[in-house]
Amino acid sequence: MTQAEKVKKLERYRWVVWGILVVAYVIVFFHRLALGVVRQDLVDTFNITGTTFANLGSMYFYPYMFMQIPAGILADSLGARKTVTYGTLLAGLGSIIFGLAPSILWAFVGRLLVGLGVSVVFIAILKIQSQWFKESEFGTMSGMTSFVGNLGGVMAQTPLALVVAAFTWRTTFVGIGLISLVVAFLCYWVVRNTPEEMGLPSIAEIEGKERPSQAPQRPPIGESLVRVLTNPRTWPSFFMFTGFFGAFISLTGAWGQSYLIEVYDLPSTVAPNYLMAATLGLAIGSFAIGKISDVMKRRKLPMIVFGAIYTITWGILVFVNGGKPPIAMLYPLFFVMGFTCSAFVLSWACGKEVNHPSIAGISTSVVNIGGFLGSAILPPILGRVFDAYGGVLEPTALFQRAFMYCFAFVAVSFLFAFLVKETHCRNIYIEKKA
Fold first, then answer.
1. Span 246-305, pLDDT tens digits
2. What angle do CA 108, 112, 117 make, to 5 degrees?
3. What is the CATH number of the domain that holds 77?
4. Is 111 part of a structural domain of the chain?
């Protein structure tokens, strides 16, 4: 096979590798947002409070958060192929346990296993992107990955509500678990960690940046982690991601459906349509901001512009008409909210581009902790508000008080976007050290 034929094969097969992994990521997003839609089913089945429900939702995010650095280490050492295979397998088993749970304890166990399993998928995809795609394509590919993954979030709104109504929530989660097991098998069978594993040239070779013998050597794992954690340029992206994503999950994955039903008196089969607009907006925005960033060769400016609009949308939701904007505003408001929340997509690229190029898995995993830190701690804060004031305040005032925390998280996180180091879409770590 000639060099040109090898390059063509690489350019074709990388989409197969990415395609299988991104199907696993669709499952990740489905589980991330699904609980909000089945909240009442869970309350009725297990007789739980708002705080317990929020903690059940957070049981996905805690292991996800704590696994991000191990996920980066696994992606850099074990490889994306086995990492995603084992993770998706565990998530499938967790979903089945959740669907069959005889008590709330077993529901927590199932949710924990799901969070543990899916926690490794995204970092592994970023690692694959760094091996199979050009550095100049990283922002676009991260956006495409988030776009397709968010389709899982879309499925976890109105489509999930309809499926649950037809087959019950238990059957639905068992079914998703079985699908996950099939995807795990495909990951092991199809995915390869690098082009070299198939006898193909590396991306660096194709771009003429280095010969294989000149490839940068990855520092030891401990040293790699210390380098990322002690690099001050890592942290602005981390904290921006924390508030932006935590607030979005609090709305679309936990309390949004209850807000729409209790404040606007919408039917339970109609309310998810509005949240679907937000998740669809995030999907489209994720692709758009990645493409815009790569074309502009800028990271910071798109983050600031999108982030400013995102902060304004939360201000509208909380302050307009006492926390109850006119219902005619909700579809465009939620869509724009999701679209501009995608500012966090660039945080992964920024984290990768300010750290050693050979530790892309660890650097992106550290940044990724931020979003899931916010997603783990913010919904239970709202849950405590609902439990404390649910019998005191009427629904509009109650949700306004709760969503005020989301607005505050977003506003503070937006300030960190101004501290992000502009990389102009290239790795600046070596340049900085030179």
1. 999 999 988 999 999 999 999 988 998 999 999 999 989 988 998 899 889 999 999 999
2. 150
3. 1.20.1250.20
4. yes
